[in-house]
Amino acid sequence: MCTASDNSGQDPFKALKLIPKPKTRDVVTTSLKAAVSIILILSVSIALYSVIHGAARPDFFLWPDSADPALYMTRFKSDDSPTNISHIAFGLGGSTGTWAKRAAYSDLWWKPGFTRGFVFLEKEPDEKTRFGIGHRVSSDWRRFRRTVGSESAVRIARVAVDLFRVGLPNVRWFVMGDDDTVFFPENMAAVLGKYDHRRMVYVGGNSESVEQDVMHAYDMAFGGGGFAISYPLAAELAAAMDGCLNRYHNFYGSDQRVWACVGELGVGLTREPGFHQIDIRGDPFGLLAAHPLVPLVSLHHLDSINPLFPNQTQLESFGALMKAYEADPSRILQQCFCYHHKYKWSVSVSWGYTVQIFPVLLTAKELETPQLTFKTWRTWSDGPFTFNTRPVSSDPCQRPIVFYLSSVVEGETNKTVTTYKRSVAQPVSNCNKDYAHAVAIENIVVSASRMEPQELNQSPRRQCCDIDGNLGNGTMRIRIRRCKHSETITI
């Protein structure tokens, strides 16, 4: 017969009741100590991760809008504000072997405090290496297959992904280029502003030399000239690229790999002629003096062409060009032409670069067609190119008298005054008097109003110019203006 004196063996919870209950204060204290310990361990782990993997943050430590594309899309769903430089992140593919020489190119266009981005290198550089732009070490790329091309092709193809994973806030566009690419940021913002950054967009240009397009692809953005991808496309690419790269291990360049992976997402190239690969050899004068009616966005292969200005190094030449660009970004290299009917001259102005006086009357179509002062990239041939060209006359008396930019002055009320000096003395023997009058001119002064950033975006119209009839003291004066209603720009 059981008694009620001891039932502890039959009640499994009775033993717990015999344990003294801790005080509430002790529970709180213990919990706080545990929480502090966890935070400390996590902080140490992150610090160790940063030491081991360089300055890059782990994926879980991204900015909220970059870590969650849906959150980003919600945040910018109704943001119709104009795209500006702050919305662009630049990613340059470089190496410790080339950066020391090419860093000066990025110094020309990089604006500390305004432009954002990094140059991605294959390893940590020497402590003495100078950087104007921030740098990062590319994430592991050696695990991917490759059968052709250099090892760097895979690494640079992943710059878009590495740049996205940095997690810069408020980015609409990711722009990739090489460490010898000169970008024109204000013009880049104006061009990208035409497109909806909330959609998947892939913007760039192809090669100037047809032989290069045939070898690689016509519908690919060549990476040296640079290309841009919108935030939604970058987010999709970041998720898909690692699996994609191994499928295209036989492709030669990094840009071709990116093009293939973007294509797998169903996105095609949107061409913008202002991206310049500069796949040409020799003198780029003819190409730049007849720039298409679009904003200048980028120039590449600067070490492979003649300096833009005579008797200057390439860096000096670009320093001069950038001074004009800073004065009026949208107008740089924009071509206009006018005529001096008394002397039968055709005058072509490539603003901020050169002015040419042709001693004959030429049509607008002739003047806007680049003169063939250059060769193809691979075979050094006279073509074919992806645009029309016209030969330089074999008759010295039919060749233009060329003037190059010498100074830029920003005047009052949004105006600029640029001066161009004759490059070399040209012989006048055996040429007519009209040619002799042209050779007598030593300076050309061009005045213009500052061009609006959106001027060239929607159905752009080439502007007109007037020549002052007074050519005294060896100076010609030209005024650039908007064309009047029904005014033509030809003879």
What keyword list fits this structure?
15 helices, seven-stranded mixed β-sheet, 30% helix, single chain, alpha/beta, 491 residues, eight-stranded mixed β-sheet
Task: Outline the structure in words.
The chain crosses the membrane at residues 34-52. Strand 13 and strand 14 form a beta hairpin. The protein has helices at 14-17, 24-53, 64-67, 69-75, 96-109, 151-157, 159-166, 185-192, 210-215, 231-247, 254-264, 285-289, 314-327, 364-367, 433-439, and strands spanning 88-93, 116-121, 134-137, 173-178, 182-183, 202-204, 227-230, 269-271, 275-276, 280-282, 298-299, 335-340, 345-350, 354-358, 374-376, 401-410, 415-422, 443-449, 464-467, 475-481. Helix 5 runs parallel beside helix 13 (314-327) and helix 7 (159-166) crosses helix 10. The strands form 4 sheets. The chain has an 8-stranded mixed β-sheet, with helices on both faces. It has a 7-stranded mixed β-sheet with strand order 3-2-1-4-7-6-8. The N and C termini lie far apart (128 Å). The model is unreliable at 1-25 and 46-66 (pLDDT under 50). The protein contains 15 helices and 20 strands.
Instruction: Give the averaged pLDDT, no decimals.
Output: 85
Estimated helix fraction: 25-40%
Strand content range = 15-25%
Name the strands of the widest sheet in spatial order: 12-13-14-16-17-18-20-19
Number of helical regions: 15
DSSP E strands, number? 20
Overall geometry? globular
Q: What radius of gyration results from the CA coordinates?
A: 31 Å
How far do the termini sit from each other?
128 Å
Spans with pLDDT under 50 lasting ≥5 residues?
1-25, 46-66
Biggest sheet, in brief?
A: 8 strands, mixed
The helix-and-strand class reads alpha/beta
